[in-house]
Write a structure and sequence with these properties.
Blueprint: E1 3-8, H1 15-21, E2 23-26, E3 29-32, E4 35-38, H2 45-53, E5 60-62, H3 66-76, E6 82-87, H4 95-105, E7 110-115, H5 120-135, H6 140-150, E8 155-159, H7 164-168, H8 174-178, E9 188-192, E10 195-200, H9 205-222, E11 226-232, H10 236-249, E12 253-259, H11 262-268, E13 273-279
Parallel strand pairs: 1-2, 1-6, 6-7, 11-12
Antiparallel strand pairs: 3-4, 3-5, 8-9, 8-13, 9-10, 11-13
Helix pairs in contact: 3-4, 5-6
């Protein structure tokens, strides 16, 4: 029983990783001043931030059309028996639901949609695990069980420069943003029950990053080895510096660098930083 692995562009897995592990990607799109760009296909993250800086309107994001899922699943049915389709949190996008609906429309292949309940490179942890297992010949049932087990170890926290992006895009309620004057501070945010909520109110960016590191330290003491990722919204130098400092402090943690691409960058804004990790 051959199992194909599908994800969406918001996992921000590199083209090299996708090719090496045979990961199939469906892009979400961003609309900038009336022009639609499929992220990771038509536009890079750095190009997006450059375009948005000069745009008069706030960009809008769009989930993949169900037809794109159907076409991909139909194509995969020629070589595979099952598909595991791993997507960003259903609390912030309809992409996961689209995969479910498309799976019900195709024949000759069984589609299992998986809600990562998160996004970006932390969503990518699930994808890479699934792809490695699929390459080794594990069944879809075994892979899904491993992903379900991973959920208890996944952590992700992020800091944004301006909460107005999240509020305007509907990914953070006005009530959540205004509680205790959150718009005037640098809160640490995270996902709870599939949606983005404040974790703690913190006054400065430096203190917010320190607080996230403290949360990493708790798990670094608890587990022998972690995979971790520093994620940035077009502030690579700052992210790289933070990564190097963390890597020196936690030598048993495997760090990598990633980014908030166009779709997630639309909602977080330039200058955002995140840190996510999971037990190896």
């Amino acid at each position: 029983m051959r199992t194909a692995i599908v994800t969406d562009s918001t996992a921000y897995i590199t083209a090299e990783e996708r090719a090496c592990l045979n990961i199939h990607m469906i892009p979400l799109s961003v609309n900038i001043s009336g022009q639609l760009f499929a992220e990771e296909v038509d536009i890079t993250a750095s190009e997006f931030y450059d375009k948005v800086r000069g745009a008069k309107e706030f960009p809008k994001t769009t989930q993949p059309p169900i037809g794109e899922f159907v076409a991909l699943f139909d194509e995969l049915a020629k070589e595979y028996d099952e598909v595991i389709s791993i997507h960003l949190s259903s609390g912030i996008s309809g992409t996961y639901q689209g995969a479910i609906q498309a799976g019900e429309m195709v024949e000759g292949i069984k589609v299992h949609a998986f809600d990562s309940e998160i996004s970006c490179a932390v969503q990518g942890f699930y994808v890479l695990k699934a792809a490695e297992m699929a390459k080794e010949g594990y069944s879809a049932k075994d892979i899904l069980a491993a992903l379900a087990d991973m959920q208890q170890y996944i952590r992700a926290y992020f800091i944004v420069d301006d909460l107005a992006h999240l509020q305007r895009g509907g990914r953070l309620s006005a009530a959540a943003a205004l509680i205790g004057g959150l718009l005037q501070v640098k809160p640490v945010l995270h996902f709870v029950d599939k949606v983005i909520v404040p974790f703690e109110k913190i006054r400065t960016r430096k203190k917010a990053l320190k607080r996230v590191e403290e949360l990493l330290a708790e798990d670094a003491k608890k587990y022998d080895a972690l995979d971790a990722v520093v994620i940035h919204g077009n502030c690579q130098a700052e992210a790289q510096e933070w990564l190097e400092q963390l890597a020196k402090t936690y030598p048993h943690v495997n760090f990598k660098l990633s980014y908030f691409g166009p779709v997630i960058g639309t909602h977080l804004g330039e200058g955002s930083l995140g840190l996510g990790w999971t037990k190896k």
